[in-house]
Structure formats: C-alpha cells, structure tokens
Design goal:
Chain lengths: ~180, ~575
C-alpha cells in the first residue's frame, strides 16, 4: 500500500491545490489510517504503540462529522452509562497479606451487605459491624476503597450509588492500620 | 368566439377557491398565484397553510396581510450548519415577534411548526392563551424554552391534538408539566416528548393515554421504564407509532411485554430505545413484521448480532435509522430483508474515536443492490471508493436525497487513492431527480463540474473541505438552475466566485460560506449591489466593523434573499453589511 512509503514520497507528491497550502487533514490522515491497519511494518513503529494504548481520538475539526449536537450529547451520555452497565465495573481487590489480587464487578451487587458478604467469601475472613461512628467494629479487617480523587475511604460512608460511581479499587486493610482508622 | 383565456377570467371566485383547495403543496399554490391578479387574490385569501423557509425573508405583518386566513404556519430559523455548532446560539430566529403579531391581528392559528428557532416560555404561554383553536405544536431542533412552557401548553390548549418535540434542548424545571393536561383533555392524537431529560408523572401519563382514545403516536423519554410502557400499551392498543423509553428490565417484565406486544397489531413505526439491554429486544420481534419505520439510532449498546436478529423480521420496512454498529454485514442483512426500503440513515456511534464499529463502501453497495426502491440516504462511513459509488449509482437511479459523510473529511478513494470525483459524478449523472446532495472525501473542481453539468434538479448542496479554486463554485452556481440552498465550509472558494453572478442569489433561499477565501470587501460589494439580499457576517472574535479591513477574510458569511431588509434583532457579533 502507498502508506509504507508515504513519508518519503510526500515531498514529490503531485497534489491538486494552490502552492503553499497545506491541507492539515491530509497530513493527519495517514496516521489515522495507520492506527486502524494492524500491520507491523518496520516503518510503522508508531502504529504498534497506538494499537496497544487506548485509541487516541483523532484531531477534532469543529462540526465534523456533521452530527447534530443533540444526538452527540445523547450518545455521549449513553456511552458513559453503557460502559459501566454492560461492560461491568470491574475493580481490583487487594487484601493485606494475600499473595495476589482479585477482581470483582461491583455493579453486580445491589448494596453494601451484598458486597461485603461476597468479599468475606472470596477472601475467607469476616468483617465487623459497620457504624458511622466507629467504622467496622469487631474484626481486624476494614474494607477500604480508592475514590476518584485518589483518596482511601472507608467502605460504607456514602450512599451505595455514589460509591459505585466513584470506586476505583478496593483494599481490605488488616491489623494495626485498621486500628488507626478506628481512632478517627 | 371568446377565447378560452377570457372565459377563465369570468370563472366565479368560489369555483376557483374550490379548485385551489385541492392544491396542498405551497409550491403549487405559489405557482397559481403568479398566473394573474384575480388568481393571486383568490389564492391568498384561501390559503390556510403557509410555509416560510427562512423566517427573515418576510415579516409577520406582511405575511398576515397577504394571508389573513392563515391557520397553519411553518417557520425555519437558523441556517442548517447551526446543527453542527457553526452558528452562535443567540444568532437569531426568534419566534416571539411572529406570535405577538398573530395575537395582535387576531389570526386563528391552529398549527405551528418550527425548526431551528429560539422559542421562549413566554412565547409558549402566549401561544397557549391567545389561540383558542390551537391544535398542533411541532418543534424541531429548537431551544430556549423549559418544561414550564410545556406546562402552559398542556394546561391551556383545550383542543390540543399534537405536541411533537423532536431533538430540542429543553430545560427541565421539574414542574410535572405532563400532569397539567386537564382531565377534560381527550383530544391528543400525537404526543412526543422523547427529547426531554426529566421525569414525568407516570400515573398521569397512564391516565392521559387511557382517556385519549384517538392517540395514534406516543414517544416517551428515557425516564419512562419498561413496566410503565407495558401498562401503557395495554391502554392504547390502537397506537400506530411508538417511541419506547428505557428498554431495560428484568426478564420477567420483558416477558410480560413480549406477551402484550402481539395485541399492538397497528404499530407500524418504532423508535426510542434510549437505554436498551439487548436481552429485552426479543419482546418486539412479534411486531417487526408490520413495521414500516424503525429508528434504533439512539441505541449504541446494541451490536450487529442483535440488530440483525431484530431486522431480519422487518420485511416491510420503508424507513430505517441505525448506528454504524450495524456493520457492513448487518447492512447486508438489511439488503436481503428490507426490499421495500426507501430511506436509510446510518449514523456514527463514535464520532471521534478510532472506532471499531464502522461501515464502509461495502455496506452501501450491498444496500443499493438489495433495496432498489431506495431514494433517500444519509451514510456516515469510514471509507469510500469510486467503484462503489459508481455501482450504487447504477443500482439506485432514483435517489432524491444523497448524503455521504466520510468520518475523515478529505479521505481519498480507499483503493486507488484518487479523489472521489468520479464516484459522486456517477451519482449526479444517474440520479436525474436528485434534489439534495452532501459530499465529502477528497474532491476536486472536477466534481463540481459534474454537479453543474448533470444535477439539474438539485436544490440543496452541502460542501466541506472540497474543491481547488473558484472555478468549482462557479460550476455549481452557473449549472444548477434550481439551486435553493448552498452551504460551503473550509473550501478554497473566494471573491471571484462570490461576485461572478450576483443576481443568482435572489433565485436562491440562502448561501452559507465559512472558512473559505471570501473577504469582507467582497461581501460589502455584494451587499451594495443587491439590496434585496441580507449579507451577514458572523464575527465571533469581537471588534467593530469599522476596525476590520476589507482584505480580511471572513470567517462566516450567511446571505439570504429578503423582502424586508436587514433584520433588527441581529446581535452584536452579526454584521449586516
């Protein structure tokens, strides 16, 4: 295909256009097509990287493609919902002292008790009783999660839906660290 | 012997009026009013439906003066490219002066259809209070109003038959507007609130549906859950057009719906699916075989397999709107199943991403081969080839509307790397009845030469990132005799093309040019030469008209013919030259 030699021939390429005009979108175009063609040619180290990372949105021209803003907004909103609804909200769960992590789909659970029971079963431990004042009383474990801001929070403080939407990963803390939380 | 002509002149007016009653299209009525003075007089006094393609071409006062018996008014405001964020929000297109004028002159307004206009709650309130026979409100791509305005319509329009809201941006005030329909309201025939974002009172909705026995069209929004929809369908088995809300539920409700559906034998049009779980779709399989219209274009979650399972039942389909998640394969199934298809629209599901869901020229060719009745297409695709377009032109010579949009605006033929001139050229050559065309991809002046030469019936042309020189635009202006609307963006057309035939613009409704090569000076010259055109320059970077140099390139220009001179409601950033 022509693209493999595109870089070399560009200078001598015959194009219809006023001299000196650079068609921006044409220059961008080869890289766009590269990221779709999953070929691993020597010339195209770039494309190999692009395939591995999450897709980079190509440069956005205002109003292109010509889709009504209403439609764009609706689809964007749905995409947010869809990604979490259908693809599941899988988060990593680590347990202090455990050799490897697990992953669970928190969308599967309807509330905190469901989630905590599942965690107890998965890691074979028992979590204490939750109270707003003291956290989890009665065991040396406390379920915590990392939220969107990167902070580690105690599981159970916020409404369930809010938790589901902000939880990035879970960590079941154990031992002296737990006591530390209880003092807050 | 009296000539036939003079005998016609003595036709009693009542007879003429009766004959004109049969003329429903405004074009026909416009034509007869040009025949002679008496026909003009009879026609204007008997016209009830008026269509105004550009609200600034005429004033409400003059409209009412000419057509005092107007009962139905259609108005369009902003230029088409406003749909794609190219026109600032408050550019114009206010409906308020029209309503005020009609109130003042005691017009017996029964129907108002607006597109791309700014509608305020105040306008809606006036509408609802001063036109006692008001029956039908259709708003398409409008904004500026909230659910409070809808509440006024619901409360006050005693004989309301139609409330149809299509793709509007409506502010939700959580005021339970739907509950404002009084118990005495039983006249609704069509209710479409799919674009609203907020919740409605479900019980009120169910009661409303139950008492409106003539309800034929109902499109709900995404907050109406499946179980409510199921109950509503039981109340309204006479529905012809259904727009679902949220189509997600537990299997039990889906089953209930599935058993209830067969009773809805009259549903021929289905849309909505604003939230959908694929597992619930089988509920609608039983009505698929009578569907003539299906819109799945707001459901990105349904992939090709499920779409195909649904569509393979739809053998009477005439109109289909889908996302490109359907894929070329899915389009192949459409081609095999939907032999009656007339209109197809394939929208991009992921406009900016390096999508996995795409359609290519293969899907289009398959459709053209299988659906020979196709006359209208809007197709967003990853790539295209001349060979494919030539094949499509051969298979479907009946296109009236042909709109192709490549996701990359200047992509060449995917196989030959050539411009797509020959492909689109084949379309205009073959489709002798083509009225609307949108082109994209790598295109040179040659395409415009073809368009000017062959597209004799073309009325609307949309060009983006195409052409090489003024010659391209000149081909179109000189060749397309029936051109009404021309919109161009990001193309190298400049002053020479703009000024070559200034009289042409009075034969057209409007011209839009943005990011082209026209200068302020040329626009001023044009405005000076043609007093019956409004030449507007949209200048968003601020600054005064006096500061700008005549050699400055104009970012956005919109000109249109008008009988009423420059508009008085233009905001600061719109310079009327």
């Amino acid at each position: 295909m022509a693209y493999e030699n595109d870089m070399n021939l560009k200078a001598t390429e015959l194009r219809l256009g006023l001299p000196g005009t650079i068609d921006e979108s044409q220059i961008k175009e080869p890289s766009f097509l590269k990221s779709n063609n999953k070929r691993s040619s020597g010339d195209m180290d770039n494309s190999a990287n692009e395939d591995e990372c999450s897709p980079v949105p190509k440069a956005q021209v205002v109003g292109w493609p010509p889709v009504r803003s209403y439609r764009k907004n609706v689809l964007q909103q749905q995409k947010k919902n869809f990604d979490s609804d259908v693809l599941g909200m899988y988060v990593k769960v680590s347990m202090d002292g455990a050799p490897y992590l697990r992953k669970i789909d928190i969308k599967v659970y309807k509330n905190y008790p469901d989630l905590l029971v599942a965690l107890e079963n998965m890691f074979k431990f028992s979590i204490g009783v939750y109270s707003e004042r003291e956290g989890y009383n009665g065991s040396e474990y406390a379920p915590t999660y990392e939220d969107k801001d990167g902070d580690w929070m105690l599981v159970g403080d916020v409404p369930w839906d809010m938790f589901v939407n902000s939880c990035k990963r879970l960590r079941i803390m154990k031992g002296s660290e737990v006591k530390g939380l209880g003092c807050l | 012997m009296r000539s036939f002509q003079s005998m016609l002149n003595y036709f009693p007016e009542e007879v003429l009026e009766h004959i004109f009653d049969f003329l429903t299209s405004h074009r026909d009525r416009n034509a007869v009013s040009l025949v002679c003075k008496s026909w003009f007089a009879v026609e204007r006094l008997s016209r009830e439906k008026v269509f105004i393609g550009n609200c600034y071409a005429i004033s409400p006062e003059r409209l009412i003066a000419r057509f005092p018996r107007v009962r139905s008014l259609t108005l369009k405001g902003k230029p088409h490219f406003a749909d794609f964020n190219l026109v600032p929000h408050d550019w114009g297109g206010f409906v308020q002066p029209w309503i005020e004028s009609m109130v003042k002159d005691g017009v017996n307004l029964e129907e108002l259809r607006l597109k791309r206009m700014l509608v305020s709650d105040e306008s809606l309130e006036l509408l609802s209070k001063f036109f006692p026979n008001f029956k039908s409100l259709v708003l398409v791509s409008c904004d500026g109003f909230s659910t409070d305005g809808l509440a006024a319509i619901a409360s006050n329009c005693r004989f309301l038959r139609e409330l149809d809201l299509q793709e509007n941006e409506v502010e939700d005030r959580r005021g339970q507007w739907l509950s404002c329909f009084p118990d005495s309201c039983t006249s609704l025939v069509s209710l479409n609130f799919a674009c609203l974002k907020g919740e409605v009172n479900l019980a009120a909705l169910e009661r409303l549906v139950a008492r409106c026995r003539n309800l034929r069209s109902l499109r709900v929004n995404h907050t109406v859950p499946l179980d409510a929809l199921q109950r509503i369908l039981l109340q309204a088995p006479q529905l012809v057009d259904l727009g679902t809300g949220s189509f997600v539920h537990d299997p039990e409700t889906c089953n209930k719906l599935e058993t209830g559906m067969p009773k809805c034998t009259s549903i021929t049009s289905l849309s909505g699916f604003l939230e959908v779980a694929a597992c619930c779709l089988p509920a609608v399989y039983t009505i698929c075989s009578h569907l003539t219209s299906l819109n799945l274009s707001y459901a990105p979650g349904i992939f090709s397999k499920e779409l195909v399972k649904l569509i393979c039942h739809c053998n009477k389909l005439e109109r289909l709107l889908v996302l490109d998640t359907i894929g070329d394969e899915g389009l192949g199934v459409v081609a095999l199943t939907c032999k009656e298809l007339q209109e197809l629209r394939v929208f991009p599901s992921d406009p900016y991403g390096v999508g996995n869901a795409v359609v290519t020229e293969e899907g289009l060719v398959a459709i053209s081969a299988g659906c020979r009745k196709l006359d209208s297409i809007l197709y967003f695709c990853q790539q295209m080839t001349n060979a494919a377009l030539i094949m499509v032109a051969k298979n479907c010579p009946n296109f009236i509307r042909f709109r192709l949009c490549t996701l990359n605006p200047t992509v060449p033929d995917a196989v030959t790397m050539q411009p797509l001139d020959e492909g689109f050229g084949a379309i205009v050559k073959s489709c002798k009845g083509l009225k609307r065309l949108s082109v994209s991809g790598l295109l040179t002046d040659l395409l415009f030469h073809y368009i000017g030469r062959y597209a004799e019936q073309l009325e609307m042309l949309s060009i983006a990132f195409a052409g090489n020189s003024d010659q391209g635009m000149l081909y179109v202006l000189n060749g397309c005799k029936k051109l009404k609307k021309l919109e161009i963006r990001d193309s190298p057309f400049g002053n020479e093309a703009l000024l070559a035939d200034v009289g042409k613009y009075e034969t057209m409704r409007s011209l839009w040019m943005s990011s082209c090569e026209v200068t302020l000076g040329a626009c001023k010259t044009l405005a000076q030469k043609m007093p019956r055109l409004n030449v507007e320059v949209i200048n968003e970077s601020g600054g005064d008209q006096t500061e700008a140099s005549v050699d400055d390139k104009v970012e956005k220009m919109y000109l249109y013919r008008t009988l009423v001179g420059p508009r008085k409601d233009a905001p600061d950033f719109v310079w009327t030259l």
